[in-house]
Amino acid sequence: MKIFPRLLLLFLLVAVLPLALFSYLNLRQDEATLRTEALGRMSGLADKKTIQVQAYLTERKREVQIRARGPQVMNAIETMPQDYAAGWHNPPYAREAAGLHEYFGRYVGEYALFYDVFLITPQGEVIYSQKREADFATNLLAGPYSETPLAQAFREVLMTLEPVISAYGHYAPSQTSALFIAAPVMVDGKFKGVFAAQLSNDLFYQVATDATGLGLSGEAIFALRDGDDVVFTTPLKYRSEAPMKLRMNPQQSSSLPMLGALSGESGAGIKPDYRGKPVVAAWRYLPELGWGMVVKVDADEVFASIAQQRVLMIEVVSGLMLFAGLLAYYFGRQISVPLEEMARTADEVARGGTNRRVDESAPGELGRFALAFNRMAENLQGLYGTLEQRIGERTRDLSATIAQLHEEIIGREQVETALRDSQSLLNEAQRLGQLGSWELNLLSGKLYWSDEIYRMFERDPAHFVASYENFLSVIHPDDREKVNQAYARSLVDRQIYDVEHRLLMADGRIKWVRERCRSEFDAAGKPLRSVGAVQDITEQKRAEDSQRIAAVAFETHEGIVIADANVNIIRVNHAFQEITGYDPDDVLGKNPRILSSGAHDKAFYAAMWRQLIDEGSWSGEILDKRKNGEIYPKWLTISTVKDGEGKVSEYVAIFSDISARKKAEEEIRNLAFYDNLTRLPNRRLLLERMSLALTASMRNQHYGAVMFLDMDRFKTLNDTMGHDYGDLLLIEVAQRIRSCVREVDTVARMGGDEFVILVEGIDSIAEEASQRAALIAEKIRSSLTTAYQLKDRLYHSSPSIGVCLYRGNEESVDVLLKHADMAMYQAKESGRNTVRFFDPQMQHAVETRAALEADLRYAVFNGQLRLHYQIQVDDEHRALGAEVLVRWVHPTRGMVSPAQFIPVAEESSLILEVGHWVLETACRQLAAWSKNELTRDLSIAVNVSAQQFKLVDFVDRVMAVLRTFDVDASRLKLELTEGVVLSDVTDVVAKMYALKSLGVRLSMDDFGTGYSSLAYLKQLPLDQLKIDQSFVRDITTDPNDAVMVQTIIDMAHNFRLDVIAEGVETEGQLAFLKQHGCRAFQGYLFSKPVPVGEFEALLGGWS
Amino acid sequence: MMRYRKFLSFVVPVLALLIILVWQYRAADQAVVRIGVLHSLSGTMAASETPLVDAVRLAVEEANATGGVNGARIEMIVSDCRSDAGYCAEQAEKLITKEHVRALFGCWTSACRKAVRPVVERHDNLLFYPVQYEGLEQSPNIIYTGAAPNQQIIPMVSWAMQQHGRRAYLIGSDYVFPRTANNIVKKLLVARGGQLVTERYVPMGEQDFDAIAGEIAAQRPDFVVNTLNGDSNLYFFRALQKAGISADVIPVFSTSIAEAELATIGPERVAGHYAVWNYFQSVDSIENRAFVERFRQRFGSRRVLDDPMEAAYIGVHLWVNAQRDAGTPDAYSVRIALGRQTLNAPAGIVAVDAETQHLWKPVRIGRARADGQFDIIWQSGRSVAPAPFPFFIPHAGRDGMAGGDK
Hints:
The structure holds 2 protein chains of 2 kinds. Chain A starts with a helix and ends with a helix. In chain A, the strands form 8 sheets. Chain A has an 8-stranded mixed β-barrel, surrounded by 5 helices. In chain A, strands 10-9-8-13-12-11 form a 6-stranded antiparallel beta sheet. Chain A is of the alpha+beta class. Helix content of chain A is 50%, strand content 23%. In chain A, strand 25 and strand 26 (754-763) form a beta hairpin. Chain B folds into 2 domains: 32-146 and 284-360, Response regulator (Rossmann fold), CATH 3.40.50.2300; 150-282 and 366-379, Rossmann fold. Helices cover 44% and strands 18% of the residues of chain B. Chain B has a 7-stranded mixed beta sheet, with helices on both faces. In chain B, strand 1 (32-39), helix 2 and strand 2 (73-80) form a beta-alpha-beta unit. The longest helix of chain B has 29 residues, at 2-30. Chains A and B meet through helix 1, helix 4, strand 3, strand 6 and helix 29 of A and helix 5, helix 6, strand 11 and strand 12 of B.
């Protein structure tokens, strides 16, 4: 095999195969990664979707539960059955139904969450329906609709007495598919009937099939199993069938992802969907509905990028292979061609062609090989040629002698004649042309210089002998080698010698000369003589240099235009092209006027010309137009060039594009007035606009509105998802607000998540203006409440908006903003996602509160607070201790009610001071009591506020106070409300245990009013439950409260807790409580809260 | 010399490669994740609880056969709780701190669960509790795979009242579950207009039921609700038989008698009486037939399966699937993934309710047969949502508080 094909094969194996293999594997890897990612993402979306649907259903279920426990439903279920039995056409029923109809009108309807609601007796009679479809007045256990989802839900409620979500199925009375939520109605612990609601399909479908984040082809689909079939329950994107109409048989489409979901599995994969098209899908089972859910996107869409990548990869790989192939071909040839040539030459040498040589220029080993080969051939040839050479030499010597003789005779005659004739003429010509001539006889070594050469070389012919060495000495040392070589070469290759070089004069000046010479040779190729000319080109060189420098200078980054005296462009540089966009061909020969933008008037140009003519130059900023029509600012300098006679010969204009600099200046100006992130006006510009707006309003007497807007829970977003998400949200919010108001209205960002909207000139009538302002604010609110797509995430947020109207400039800008801000806070307090108008009463309340707070602060530190003691007794009226209650005696306000000042204290953290003071005072009292036999065993109950309890060092503080007064900790009882213990379970429980370990006793205050569950209660190390007075008040009259109190007492006993009832006012209450096992009491029946002196007196009385 | 060197240059890399391969294999072999199994293998609860260990074992073996969890093999460590709640809590503590188990599977009685609960909560570990119970409880560290009250006791009493009458006699062991369960039953009787005839409690392990049988015979309630636990049931049914009380006259509805207990009591004594569970061995489904088949293949062809065993079995699978879904052993991620689990279980499709950490389960009423199996005479159409805090009892739980949200 020849060497070249072998090399090629090797290349294929070593380079191409791995490259192709690597590319293929890489592509496979990418595909696998993308697949994993897509499946992971789909799983995430499926989880999200599951939560979304579950949340929707849970909410609805909760609503049904709340209604089922509401007074309307509870009353109706008690009274309606009799009226219904008496005939539902009769007035008593009709009256009652009308009442209910109005009540439910808010929840039921075309676009409401519920389609219909029902009341059903335990016997299954549908005694009320909002819509009164065919189902009304039928029996769900025996009637025509006993097999409907509603009946099924009803039966499940009967069995479990739990709220249930029905199966989803066809519901004949509504002639559509339906989903019901049913809950038992309990009155006094007795099962009285069922309240059921039929979900509105449209809204539910919307929530379920919302395909946000699923791409173009994505959808969320739902199905249930009916027998063996899969029935799709929600509208589908690619099929027109109504919900519940499309059925599929799993035998035919056994790889449907839905089948996995319907058998209770969750998973993700690439499978064909109901169209048979491959999709990236994730499936989940929804236990609430018994449905399967599939969230999917077409595989085509997901893998589109990989397909593109594949094409790109093939292109790149083949390109690389082609390139590498060519390279390999070239280098292969470099090796194989000389080798083949050597082989051929060696062959010829062997056949006798001993004068053949190979090329030695090949690199490396090949070159060395060629050299050795040639030396070998030379030796061979040398031996071979010696004989021939000797004969040749003799012959040559003889003929040379003859020729020389002959030549000399002829030459001498000719030269002498010619010389004589032309010498003088030549000298003259040479001087004029600055051209000298010389002649060198190579046989004799004699050199002749013409007079001009002596002049040029600045050598005196009298003292200076022309010779080659002397000639070299005149040459600039750096050029000597060059000249020498050039001459030597001309003798070898018999070409004309032509060289430019420098001369170094005695005084150091440098001259440039050009030399040309021709040599003559004899027949054998031996050089005989050279004749040459030397020309002084110093001037010419200098001119060339300055031209070159000018040319380089011309091509700078500044645009240059040169025009002639008639102001026609004769030259432009490259930068000109770049800046203006014009090619030289577009402008040469034309007046620079074509560049102008028309932005300057005649006077401007006239002034420019005047200065140009008077002073020879002009510079300044000017607006010109590019070829594409864009107008741009440039800095222009024009100078005139004058010829020898002082007349203008050219104009030179130099300019630079300063649009970038201009933009930067603009930016800086914007920064001062616009918010960087949202591009909205900032506070400064807003204040400016507002003061203008107020002035305008004073003139036209129109109302305007200032709205203060704050995004709810923005900080949480920033903290949990990071600031880039926060920024994205703000940008989106800014855009949405802008799109809600007119162009003339100002939307400004005040910083953080606060925005202010200034709407001017709304109306001249106050009612109209506030109506319209409310509409605008509502529009903004609802626009900001729709979901935000922040990169890959869906985010929900809402604003709180405070609105304040203005007319004229009665209120200052600051006051208006403060009012709007106040209204916004009001909106936040009333549960966020709301619009609130500023109300002067609100301001009054705020101010009063502030005054109260200031007074309270003074009161705390100046001893205006007092403690009152309310006795707690056991069932034999023995004093157990007291609950202390704080009282405030204000020097001018008089007695301030705790209901008034405690909330103020809680808001301002003054509660910490108050709480501490109470604790200290109570402990001081305990210390005092411990010295008296009568009071030694009394305990004091102190209320602890949530804020106080949350203090990190709360336990330490309690311990410190106990130590200070040296009090037995078990005498101190801390009363915690449910609000305190419900906040942060782990922290609360830890603190409670710590307090217990000090010996302090813990009581749960107001028990029964909050939400604490049994489960939760059990985790807490409590000593006592305190039954809230609201229950005690009505135990003798309201059976509900009686049951409640009974339950609490039972529960307390179950958990081995003490129980105390507060607010005991009558003997009847006392008797009831005693009867049901309560052994401790507090209330006006025994004593109202009294100062300590009175309390102690009371003890005397008790004992 | 030359040949020797050539030989070495071949052998050394091959040996090195082999060593690396073996080491890697061994390293993979060493990855183990431990779980603890806490059941009474001795004492009064042994008969009920021992089979649960096998159910857990089957699930663990199945999980290991399909790759374990995230590359690790599951190893189960079984502790005998000796029918003593306090001792069981000590064992739980030991399993968590000494054996570093990732999760606990076990307990039968509520007393046991309540003793272990603070332990798992303190260590932020997980307990999978496989038995129906009285509800009114919820812990972030417990997954309740048995029935909540609304999935057993409540439908049981509702059905009994629909079918047999209003007068109920309550008998139970004297500890947390029967007392709390009967509190719910009493409230239910009030709600549905029923009547409580008598309520009796006996100590755990009680054997003398003659007086009680006599009382039942004398009072002739419409039905008996039996919340006895452990081997007392044997003596109770024996006493009933002795007193001549037959199932068609006064049916007994039991909460803690499944196939396993039938076998120890003697099926013919219980035949005709009722039990309510989420699962019976006689459930007719492909999944269940395969489950029974697998279990018998592993532990013997005469073994019976019952509800707590199934619940124990699916507990392990839920835990395994959650680990696999989470892809990490990180406890928090696993707990999130647990809240999303659904499973095609032998009982039917079950799903974890993330909020309560109880399961959606189907409810079934079975009538005991003389052959030790149950005839399923009623079942809920679908899985029923768990409600550990019954809705109809005011102030039983968060949802029980009026208003719901504010």
